Amino acid sequence: GENVEQHPSTLSVQEGDSAVIKCTYSDSASNYFPWYKQELGKRPQLIIDIRSNVGEKKDQRIAVTLNKTAKHFSLHITETQPEDSAVYFCAASIRSGGSYIPTFGRGTSLIVHP
Amino acid sequence: EAGVTQFPSHSVIEKGQTVTLRCDPISGHDNLYWYRRVMGKEIKFLLHFVKESKQDESGMPNNRFLAERTGGTYSTLKVQPAELEDSGVYFCASSQGSPGRAGVGNTQYFGPGTRLTVL
């Protein structure tokens, strides 16, 4: 089955710096890669996703890149702000028909210091 | 629009007891998912309903876990009898269509989770 490794487990940055979280996956058939943000005491929320036919996607200060050959994808946050502090989860899934079974990484705790 | 709700928010039970978790998806969402996160580890898929039918239950750990979605609305996840290793946060999520398909309606929305502690 699919295996997703996520690094680092903890990331501490100064406000305004960039943050990068990396994930690798094992199953080359995976074709959908969502990223979730979970703030303390709140529910996970989808912040950005990418499909296997795209190499990069941006949404304001966040971007995701995908390298299918190397089987890794990354989340990039620029100009970090204290409200970006949260746990971030990556996931890889094979979307086939109506089936959707994501495999998640262990999460990265991002701390943005003011 | 109300989000996904889960009840209870916390549950503390003793080993051997039974617990039932409930999830109310966003109205109109045919797809309902259950996940579990053991402390410090990854969120793990348990199962997926499409309306009242189980689309995939390959993530269910064993036969002590039973999920139902009668009528295709809310869902329950029962653990009987509970063991120590069942402790964790149980998340429910719902989506209108299948996540990964293009379209805003296919976004998966998570509930706040139920924190289960088995003593």
Order of helices and strands of chain B: EEEEEEEEEEE
Number of strands of chain A: 11
In helices, the fraction of residues of chain B equals under 10%
Largest interface: A-B, 28 and 29 residues
Mean pLDDT of chain B: 92
User: What structural class do the secondary elements of chain B suggest?
Assistant: mainly beta
What's the end-to-end separation of chain A, in Å?
41 Å
Largest sheet of chain B: 7 strands, mixed
Give the helices and strands of chain A as they follow along the chain: EEEEEEEEEEE
Helix proportion range of chain A: under 10%
Shape descriptor of chain B: globular
Q: Report the β-strand fraction of chain A as a percent range.
A: over 45%
Strand content of chain B: over 45%
Low-confidence stretches of chain A: none
Number of strands of chain B: 11
Provide the residue-averaged pLDDT of chain A. Answer: 93
List segments of chain B where confidence is low: pLDDT < 50 over at least 5 consecutive residues: none
Instruction: Output the structural class of chain A.
Output: mainly beta
Provide the gyration radius of chain A in Å.
14 Å
Helical stretch count of chain B?
0
Task: Tell me the major beta sheet of chain A.
Answer: 6 strands, mixed
What's the quick description here?
With 114 residues, chain A is an all-beta fold. Helix content of chain A is 0%, strand content 61%.
Topology:
The complex is a heterodimer of chains A (about 110) and B (about 120).
Chain A: E1 4-7, E2 10-14, E3 19-25, E4 32-38, E5 45-51, E6 56-59, E7 62-67, E8 72-77, E9 86-96, E10 99-104, E11 108-113
Parallel strand pairs in A: 2-11
Antiparallel strand pairs in A: 1-3, 3-8, 4-5, 4-9, 6-7, 7-8, 9-10, 9-11
Chain B: E1 5-7, E2 10-13, E3 19-24, E4 31-37, E5 43-50, E6 53-56, E7 65-68, E8 75-79, E9 88-95, E10 109-110, E11 114-118
Parallel strand pairs in B: 2-11
Antiparallel strand pairs in B: 1-3, 3-8, 4-5, 4-9, 5-6, 7-8, 9-10, 9-11
